């Protein structure tokens, strides 16, 4: 059974992810913050991490870099309620980026792809990435 670590400060989202992903056949553990994250990864050796970008106490993108520095090949899926983060240059080391939704079908699909070694978020960044980034800034209101 594949193990997934969820890092999200929203209790409801942690419970939703835990329930839905357990029902899908994964072993799920959750934490609410990044402190202790590296120890938990060391101890539990998850097959994949789902990481919230905007945590209360920490920046999820900084935590992503911590994971990459020590566990480079561990798949990480970034989640955020804000689609603009998808085009932040710091997200480039994530395997996938998913906009949070109570319907977890996209997240489940990305988890399956990451665990099976499918095409990652890295491949989504092609020559038109700058055009998409510019379009996003023009269409998206500023983040509060």
Kindly state the percentage of residues in helix.
Answer: 40-55%
Task: Summarize model confidence as the mean pLDDT.
Answer: 84
The CATH homologous superfamily is termed Response regulator
Number of domains: 1
One letter per element, helices H and strands E, the order comes to EHEHEHEEHHH
Computed Rg: 15 Å
Spans of 5+ residues with little confidence (pLDDT < 50)? 119-130
CATH topology: Rossmann fold
Shape designation: globular
With helices defined by DSSP (H or I, 4 residues minimum), what is the helix count?
6
| The top level CATH class name | Alpha Beta
What structural class do you assign from the helix and strand content?
alpha/beta
What percentage of amino acids are in beta strands? 15-25%
Q: In oligomeric terms, what are we looking at?
A: single chain
Biggest sheet, in brief?
5 strands, parallel
For the record, give the distance between the C-alpha atoms at the N and C termini, rounded to a whole number.
Answer: 40 Å
CATH architectural category:
3-Layer(aba) Sandwich
Write a short abstract of this structure.
The modification 4-aspartylphosphate is found at residue 52. The protein has 144 residues and is an alpha/beta fold.
Note down, in words, how this protein is organized:
The structure is a single chain. By secondary structure, this protein is of the alpha/beta class. It has one domain (3-139): Response regulator (Rossmann fold, 3-Layer(aba) Sandwich). It contains 6 helices and 5 strands. It has helices at residues 11-23, 37-44, 60-70, 105-116, 121-124, 129-139, and strands at residues 3-7, 27-31, 48-52, 76-80, 96-99. Strands 2-1-3-4-5 form a 5-stranded parallel beta sheet, sandwiched between helices. The longest helix is centred in the N-terminal third of the chain and has 13 residues, at 11-23. The model is unreliable at 119-130 (pLDDT under 50). It comes from uncultured Desulfobacterium sp. It holds the Pfam family Response_reg. This is Response regulator receiver domain protein. The modification 4-aspartylphosphate is found at residue 52. Keywords: Phosphoprotein.
């Amino acid at each position: 059974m594949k193990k997934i670590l969820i890092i999200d400060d929203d209790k409801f989202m942690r419970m939703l992810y835990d329930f839905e992903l357990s029902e899908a056949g994964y072993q799920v553990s959750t934490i609410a913050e990044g402190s202790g994250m590296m120890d938990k990864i060391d101890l539990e050796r998850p097959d994949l991490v789902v990481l919230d970008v905007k945590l209360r106490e920490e920046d999820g993108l900084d935590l992503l870099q911590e994971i990459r520095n020590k566990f480079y090949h561990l798949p990480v899926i970034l989640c955020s309620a804000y689609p603009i983060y998808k085009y932040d240059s710091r997200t480039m080391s994530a395997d996938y980026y998913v906009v949070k939704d109570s319907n977890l079908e996209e997240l489940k699909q990305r988890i399956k792809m990451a665990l099976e070694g499918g095409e990652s978020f890295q491949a989504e960044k092609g020559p038109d990435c700058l055009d998409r980034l510019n379009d996003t800034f023009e269409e998206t209101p500023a983040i509060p």
